[in-house]
Amino acid sequence: MPRGDKGKYTNKQKRKAEHIEQSYEAKGVPKGEAEARAWATVNKQSGGGERSGGSGQQKSPADKARSRSSSARQAVASKHGELRPEQRLEDMTKAELLGLARKREIAGRSSMRKQALIEALR
C-alpha cells in the first residue's frame, strides 16, 4: 500500500478528517496544511487506520492481569513515596527525594541539597 493511502481508515475517521480539514480551511489555513493537520489529529485520536489482524504481540488474559497488577502496585508505591526495586536514589529528582524524606520524617530536609538528601535517605 503506497505511503499516504487512506484505504485502511474507517468511514468515520475519513468524515472526521474532512470535518477537521474544513474547520482549518475556514480559519485561513492553506488546503495542504489543513489536510495534514486533520489527518494528524485523526491519527493521534484513534491510532491510525483500521488494521487487519493483530499486532502479533497480543497478551494472554493472564499476562494482562499480571501487568495490571504490577502497574497498580507500582502506582501505590509511588504514591506512598516508596522506592521501586530498580530505582536508584541518584536517578530521582530533588522533588521526589524531598517527598521520600518527608515520608521518613528526616529533619532539615527542606534546606538540603540533592546530594545531602541522598546521603540522609541512605
UniProtKB/TrEMBL annotation:
All copies of domain Rho termination factor-like N-terminal, residue ranges: 89-121
Region (Disordered): 1-91
Top-rank taxon: Bacteria
Cross-referenced InterPro entries: Rho-like_N (IPR011112)
Positions with biased composition (Low complexity): 68-78
Ranges of biased composition (kind: Basic and acidic residues): 18-36, 79-91
Biased composition (Gly residues): 46-56
Protein name: Rho termination factor N-terminal domain-containing protein
Organism: Pseudomonas fakonensis
Higher taxonomy: Bacteria, Pseudomonadati, Pseudomonadota, Gammaproteobacteria, Pseudomonadales
